[in-house]
Amino acid sequence: MYKEKEQVPEFEDFYVPFGGHLREDNRWVRLAAIIPWEEIEAEYKKCFSKRIGRTAKTVRLALGSLLIKEKLQLTDEETVETIRENHYLQYFLGYESYKDEKPFDPSMMVHFRKRLGPDAIAKINELIAKRYQEQVEAESEKKQNKENQKDDHDHGNRGQLIIDATCVPQDIRHPHDVTLLDEARRKTEKIIDTLYEASELTIKSRTYRKQARIKYLNFIRGRRRTKKEIRRAIRTQLQYIRRNLRTINELQNKVPSTTLSAKQRRDLIVIHEVYRQQVQMYKGKTHSISGKIVSISQPHVRPIARGKAKAAFEFGAKLSASMTEHGMIFIDRLQWEPYNEQEDLPTQIEKYKRRCGRYPESVHADKIYRTRANRAYCEARGIRLSGPPLGRPIKETLENKKIVRQLRKIQRLDEAIRQAIEGGFGYMKRKFGLGTIYEKLRETSETAIMVCVLLTNCEKILRDLFMRFLFLLGFKPHKSYLKVLVY
Q1: Rg (CA), the chain
Q2: How distant, in Å, are the alpha carbons of 237, 342, 401, 414 from that of 396?
Q3: Does residue 481 have a pLDDT over 50?
Q4: Cα–Cα–Cα angle for 328, 332, 334, nearest 5°?
Q5: How confident is the model at residue 485 (pLDDT cuts 50, 70, 90)?
Q6: How far is 453 from 456, CA to CA, in rounded Å?
Q7: 124-159 per-position pLDDT tens digit
Q8: Out of the domains of life, which is the source (predicted)?
Q9: pLDDT over 90 for what percent of the chain?
């Protein structure tokens, strides 16, 4: 059951028992002012009953707690303790006065991530970003009307769209086939112990767990392992797992299905798939397969080929993002399976049109997006796709010297504009939690990613408000500084 809060006090009315008052320029007070809590609550309360059930926490408390966790880079337990100690955070969460008590149990953070979900966070992000863009465009139109300037692009394409893709690493152990099989073997041994205790058997089937562990340790401690030694270690672990799975099938026929816990049943299903994949790769003499599982506890995680200097592969979700000319970032696609991001360009352009009501004047993208199909799509809609044209580069002569230099200048400017989204990715990975996702479930991980993007847009809005305040005071930065002010 969900009950609406009648009224949230202004920061002047927030009661602090030890004296004093809240500062208007505090970051949490300013952040609370740009989030449309009432509109979010109107959608959030539709998920609950009005009469039946235990009273749920308010949406401001749920969403605000997730924002605090990602912004301060805390664990769930530390988030609860920090809220208890800070009166500014309690005002941000909608409290009427400071209370020296825990707002909720730390385990509620998992329910908040599940209850809100990635789709709801994405809608909130679009709501805030769209409102900000409309405000900036309205101010720009007022300025043009004051200066009696006519905009020639009102009825055509206008604006810039920057697109790119990145991988969000998940907090898992670096996958190794032998280590993964050893973990699967140890889990099957615990399952056998659970089933044997519930059965009436007097003789326990052999698992050779001590020998299997010794062989694994002897292999993993070796400094240089040849291909022959790796295949031998994989074959040995597969044999132990095959024996354990056969024993589990025999015991399951003799005990109730409820003997195993929900986690053990889930792990058993994953282990069956891991065993099937490893057998197929062993017979095919390869280390890659479609939908390869690299973690038993997080079977949704997949290896994403990146080809970076740091690592050839990253393990986590892959997302396609777009950035508008005002610096607002949107997640257009989030998927755990690897895919080619060049397919997303038409979809991202259409989403830009839905958000802004028009096509962009130019699209700034990496080399991988500049396919013939994408070029034809942009040309049919009057959109300029960044990068050099197809064919041989134009040879510079005395006649076309100015034209060639102008084209090169445009290409350099396009590349500089495209770097803004790279800076946005780096900003989210360094300052917020996008560098490593610690949530275990698929849904909660996606929610954490969306919260990081929402926080990034809110930070951009607050920075712009601060710059406007400086402009009012007479501060005029250099033009080169304004170009890199986005991130």
Answers
A1: 28
A2: 64, 31, 6, 21
A3: no
A4: 120
A5: very low
A6: 5
A7: 999 999 888 888 888 777 777 766 655 544 558 888
A8: Bacteria
A9: 58
CA angle, 278 then 284 then 289, to 5°: 55
Q: Which residues of 417-453 are buried (b: 16+ CB within 10 A; e: fewer)?
A: bbebbeebbebbbebbbbeebebeeeebbbbbbbbbb
Q: How far apart are CA 117 and CA 447, in angstroms?
A: 5
Distance CA(463)–CA(455), nearest Å, equals 12
DSSP per-residue letters across 336-371: SS---GGGGHHHHHHHHHHHHSS--SEEE--GGG--
Q: Counting Cβ atoms within 10 Å, is residue 131 exposed (0-12), middle (13-18) or buried (19+)?
A: middle
CB 387 within 8 A of CB 414: yes
Burial class (CB in 10 A: 0-12, 13-18, 19+), 198: middle
Q: Which domains occur in the chain, in start order?
A: 13-116 (no CATH), 156-172+302-438 (3.30.420), 177-284 (no CATH)
Q: Which two tokens stand for residue 244?
A: 């354990």
**Which amino acid is present at 356?**
C
Helix axes 76-85, 59-72, angle to 10 degrees: 110
Can you tell me which residue has the tokens 């299903």?
A: 269
47 phi, psi to nearest 5 deg: -80, -5
CA pair distance 471, 300, nearest whole angstrom: 49
pLDDT confidence of 464, banded at 50, 70, 90?
confident
| Range in 34-48, 142-156, 176-190, 245-259 with the lowest mean pLDDT | 142-156
